[in-house]
Design brief:
It holds the Pfam family Cons_hypoth95. This protein is α/β, with parallel strands linked by helices and about 190 residues long. It has a domain at about 1-10 and about 25-90 and about 100-115 and about 135-145 and about 165-185: 3-Layer(aba) Sandwich (Rossmann fold), CATH 3.40.50. It is built from 5 helices and 8 strands; from the N terminus they run αβαβαβαβαββββ. It has helices spanning about 25-35, 55-60, 75-85, 100-110, 130-140; strands spanning about 45-50, 65-70, 95, 115-120, 140-150, 160, 165-170, 175-180. It has an 8-stranded mixed sheet. Helix 5 links the parallel strand 4 and strand 5 (about 140-150). Helix 4 packs parallel to helix 5.
Length: about 190
């Protein structure tokens, strides 16, 4: 697991020791960022279920303005902070120890609005729909913003959740990545 492009290109990220996480593979990450391309530059990014900080740090390396990295595991928080130091991205990031829905509410209260939101929740825990609903209900996503959801191919999220609409999906073996944006108003 490494940073693929940008200022921190080539830096290897540390995985947490002793806990079971499933970091986004370099192949999947490269495909995600190929889809996002220029939308990353100067963006506000939220990396929910951050794990190692992999996606948020990649976005910072590629020119994102600020990243909020959210995880509730103390071990993951330590690893995220180590990876931010290692890649010299600390000044552009805020690490939040919280569950995703509470973090969404907190970020909304401090007037954060995201251009990009990454979600890579643990598989089989039914976290995708409530998290997407919280993002939509709280108005966390900017009008032209994008949400990237990584999930098991056998457990696809619905095409529509509240005001969010899936507009693209890509499969990589057992992993699938779905892209959401706000529904266009009639």
């Amino acid at each position: 697991m490494r940073i693929i492009a940008g200022k921190a290109k080539g830096h290897r990220l540390m995985p947490p020791k002793g806990i079971d996480i499933r970091p986004t593979s370099d192949r999947v990450k490269e495909s995600i960022f190929n889809v996002l391309q220029a939308t990353v530059i100067d963006s506000i990014v939220i990396d929910l279920f951050s794990g190692t900080g992999n996606l948020g740090i990649e976005a910072l390396s590629r020119g994102a303005e600020k990243a909020y990295l959210v995880d509730q595991s103390p071990q993951s928080i330590n690893v995220i902070e180590e990876n931010l130091l290692k890649t010299r991205q600390t000044e552009f990031a805020e690490v939040i120890k919280s569950d995703a829905v509470s973090a969404i509410i907190k970020l909304t209260q401090i007037k954060v609005r995201a251009d990009l939101i990454f979600m890579d929740p643990p598989y089989g825990k039914d976290l995708i729909i409530p998290t997407l609903e919280a993002i939509s209900t709280n108005g966390l996503l900017k009008k032209e913003g994008i949400i990237v959801v990584e999930h098991d191919k056998d457990d696809p999220p619905p095409e529509v959740v509240s005001e969010l609409v899936q507009y693209r999906s890509k499969k990589f073996g057992n992993t699938c990545v779905s892209f959401y944006r706000l529904r266009e108003e009639a």
